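Bench notes, afternoon.
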Amino acid sequence: MINYSVQMTKKAELKSLSLLFLKLGSIAFGGPAAHIAMMEHEVVRKRKWMTHEHFLDLVGATNLIPGPNSTEMTMHCGRERAGWAGLVVAGLSFILPAVLITMLLAWLYGLYGHLPNVLPFIYGIKPAVIAIIVSAIIPLAKKAVKNSELAILGLITAAACLLGLNEIVALFGTGAAGLLLYYFKKKNSLNSFTPFLLFQVISDPLAISNLRIFLIFLKVGAVLYGSGYVLFAFLDAELVMKGFMSREQLIDAVAVGQFTPGPVLSTATFIGWQLNGWQGALLATAGIFLPSFLFVGLLNPLIPKIRKSKAASAFLDAVNVASVALIAVVIIAMSRESLFDWKTILIAATGFLVVFKMKKLNSAFVVLGGSLLGYLLSFI
């Protein structure tokens, strides 16, 4: 009877995870920073599944491994809530809407040779998303900035990234600086701290095949850091330069990943379809996301142990501050790109007002409201 009760509780938790991340995967526009902001609202503030401090630890740790940060955060949240099954269910649920939408667009693209005009509908999404990200970064920053040294490290990281420093160099560099500060103050000997590395080699057969598609995207998923522009560079080298697809097709594929909800790596689904239909789409999708499941599965159990080590904790504190600084840089970059006229500024201002005055409102309504307002204003 007890086992039956435990099983029912487990099923309820998995169902709750699935419904939450299916919803987020369906409305999470705006890139990883926006996705993480929505997760913070749903998981920390609304459902109280974890503290701001632990959520921030997961964000910092996720930034240190390859793969799509927001997708990996869903896996962390699932692992925390319902163990290994939760990790898989949360990750798959978040990915599924983007994959299905992208497969539909890939099929239409194959029929008609061009993408549908969605600009009137996405016109107001990014300004609204900026408000959501700001609402999330404020509590995270309060928890991350524990002292003046961390505040200075955060400001230096943000300034360096604005000047063009690579975000991965910034994260590890800030972490190393935090570690050095810890030992400078404590004057203790250095304990072992092992970074996460992955090396792998892929063969280069003469013709594209389902296996080749899977291996190409497995390689990209295993080593990819950074934004969608980095993804573009990887795929350009792997597919365009080797003659498997045109650069125009690749640009269209990246565009699909940008304007559909969920992870931008759904670009892989679109490309896989162009290479070999639905089989190519499924294999490309599996290949690019599989490393994330493995990385998170290895990393998640280690985070509490890292926190118990004072030296590793100092490193993670610095990385957390750097993560908040990177989100701030994303806000600045998105503002430059998205707030270019009075209409977009009005949408952003309305989003700020709604987010800060109606704190219990689901972020999905902010995104949908921004899209609708952008569509209406596009006729003026």
